[in-house]
Structures are given as structure tokens and as C-alpha cells.
Write a structure and sequence with these properties.
- This protein is mostly helical and 339 residues long.
- The chain is built from eleven helices and six strands.
- The strands form two sheets. The protein has a three-stranded antiparallel β-sheet with strand order 1-3-2. It has a three-stranded parallel β-sheet with strand order 5-4-6.
- The two termini are 27 Å apart.
Length: 339
């Protein structure tokens, strides 16, 4: 495991991960390791402090899939656009029909974004629903593993196998096995879709139009559309970015490794030096938003919250020949797309 870098992050025990073992047990043939954005990170730009005063916190990962170290995977639908990241090659190999099913890792959109940009299906499951045993995890409270596939049937099969409870993983072992199948939904189940207009309005017009068309279709199919409020959207973005960057910054032992790109050396150093006060305030914001979501689900039984998958339809590769050679960063767009 290299995480898109020239370094090895393979577990010292050198054992096969739970996810790979589960797929192999049912006959999957593992083709190989796929490329990604280096460490899932990109070049930083200054951002305001969550607390309202100067802070060493900077914006985290770009979400393009651009990797000047090991190469940038191609978006086969349009080579002039990035595949999205950080699970970039997991998206491109499915969209090009090289593979029917791949693994992705997501802490801030790294399954969702390449799935959207490459026109495939991806699933970011509940945290710890899929065991990460034997897999390196530098973003321990935000990152999860999930499947990426060319169709929903393959995605479901891949997920059900991956989510087999691992008896040696105390959190994973608490979940029921998904292989038994879900109970059929009753005819009288409530069909409610919640939309946050502020979230949709933050997307590009083309994305907004698709969302509105989808909502019109769902409404005609018997779903009740309700407006919901998701407070502190911007503060939530910053809290999420601060959390994942701090976790990665403390999880990677050698922040100044000369093999990392200069931008990632800066990001890792910044993450490792995030003040504890800022980190704790971010967790308070996180808890507040989770409590609000719990309230919404209790208020509207059966609620499905529908949002754009990404705020734009794609990310165009710039005209500069140095962009793919030296890297690219748009921190504002990255934070926006991570939500």
C-alpha cells in the first residue's frame, strides 16, 4: 500500500486486508493495486479560523485525482477532465470497463467525487460498517472503505460481502450481517425526501437543474418533498476539513519525508500542529450537526436527505502543461466539493 506516493504504508504484519479476503472468499479475482491522489491531499491555501481568530489551519486535499508523483488517471468519458479523487483510478477503471468492481476509501468525498465525475456508482457506508482490519487508516474518525461499481446490482453485492462483520474488530462485530438480506419495505412505509435549498443553491446551474428534475420525478412517484434546515454549513465544512487534516497529519509519522510533494509536506506539518483547542471546537460542531440530523430523522420517519453528489459536473484540466507535472490546487473548490 503506497497511497499514491513512493512510500510504503503496508501494515507491518503484512497480512491481507479484511475487505480483500471477503471478496476472494466468494471467488473475486484481484487484478492489482490502483493509483490515487498522493495521500489524498493537495496544496494548501489560507483559510479563516473556525474560531474567528488567526489559525495555522489551512484547507486540505484537492479532489481532482491529480498526482504528479505516480501519474494522474484518465477520465475516460472526457480526457480533458479530471477523474476526481482521491480514489481516482478506482473510478476510471470501472468507467472504462476494465473492472466491474473496485475498492474506494472516503474521508471527505473520495468515493463520492470520482464516482460522480466518472459516471459510476459508489457507496460511502456508515463509519466502521466495513472493517478496515489490516488496512492503514490515517484518518481514523472520518475515513471508511466502500465499493465502486458500474451498476447498482454489483454495488450492492460488493457491499454486502465487504460488510460481513469481522469478529476481531469490536465495532464491526456489533453490526448484523448484511448477507441475510434486508426486510422488504412495507407498502405503508413513509416516503419522505428532505432537501436543503441552501445546499442545492450552492451548486452549478447545470447540477441544480438535474436535481430539480430528479425531485420532480420522485414527487410524481409518491414521495413527499419537505424543506429541511441544515445549520452551520460553512462552519461544518471547516470542522470536517480541520478534523481530517489533523488526523492525517498526526497519523503519518514522517511529515517531512522528501519523497512527498512540497504541498503535502506543508499540509502534513500544518495538520500535526493544529491546536488542541481548535480540534476540540471542531468536534463540538460535529456533535451539534449530528444531533440536528438525529432530530430531523425523528421528526420525519423514513427521511431521505437528497443533495447534489458534487457541486459541479466535472473539473477541467487546465491549459498549463505544468499542471499534471507539478500539481494543481484550488482549495476553495476542494472544501466545497468535500461536503
Amino acid at each position: 500500500m503506497t497511497l499514491g506516493s513512493t512510500q510504503s504504508f503496508t501494515n507491518p504484519k503484512n497480512t491481507t486486508s479484511w475487505c480483500v479476503l471477503k471478496w476472494e472468499e466468494v471467488g473475486a479475482i484481484i487484478i492489482g493495486k490502483l493509483n490515487m491522489h498522493e495521500l489524498g491531499l493537495g496544496k494548501p491555501l489560507p483559510k479563516p479560523s473556525l474560531l474567528g481568530h488567526p489559525s495555522p489551519f489551512h484547507s486540505p486535499a484537492d479532489t481532482t485525482g491529480n498526482n504528479p508523483v505516480t501519474g494522474t488517471p484518465t477520465n475516460h468519458h472526457n480526457p480533458a477532465y479530471y477523474p476526481g479523487g482521491s480514489s481516482s483510478a478506482s473510478g476510471t477503471t470501472v468507467s472504462s470497463n476494465l473492472l466491474p468492481l473496485t475498492l474506494g476509501c472516503d474521508g471527505g468525498g473520495s468515493i463520492r467525487i470520482p464516482s460522480a465525475y466518472c459516471g459510476i456508482y459508489g457507496l460511502k457506508p456508515t463509519h466502521s460498517r466495513i472493517s478496515r482490519s489490516s488496512s492503514t487508516n490515517h484518518a481514523f474518525s472520518t475515513s471508511v472503505i466502500g465499493p465502486m461499481a458500474s451498476n447498482m446490482a454489483d454495488l450492492e453485492i460488493g457491499y454486502r460481502i465487504l460488510a460481513t462483520p469481522n469478529p476481531e474488530d469490536r465495532v464491526s462485530a456489533m453490526f448484523a450481517s448484511p448477507l441475510a438480506g434486508a426486510k422488504p419495505a412495507g407498502k405503508n412505509r413513509q416516503k419522505v425526501i428532505g432537501i436543503c435549498k441552501q445546499w442545492i443553491d450552492a451548486s452549478a446551474p447545470s447540477v441544480q437543474n438535474i436535481c430539480h428534475d430528479a425531485l420532480t420525478y420522485f414527487s410524481s412517484s409518491g414521495y413527499e418533498i419537505v424543506d429541511i434546515d441544515l445549520p452551520y454549513l460553512h462552519e461544518g465544512q471547516l470542522s470536517h476539513a480541520l478534523t481530517i487534516l489533523s488526523e492525517i497529519g498526526t497519523g503519518v509519522a514522517d511529515c517531512n519525508n522528501q519523497s512527498f510533494t512540497p504541498s503535502n509536506k506543508i499540509l502534513l506539518s500544518v495538520g500535526a500542529q493544529t491546536p488542541a483547542h481548535d480540534f476540540l471546537m471542531a468536534q463540538k460542531m460535529r456533535s451539534l450537526l449530528m444531533s440536528h440530523l438525529s432530530y430531523l430523522f425523528q421528526k420525519h420517519p423514513g427521511l431521505l436527505i437528497v443533495t447534489p453528489t458534487t457541486p459541479n459536473a466535472g473539473w477541467c484540466i487546465g491549459s498549463s502543461p505544468g499542471e499534471l507535472k507539478y500539481g494543481i490546487s484550488d482549495a476553495n473548490m476542494s472544501v466545497k466539493s468535500m461536503t
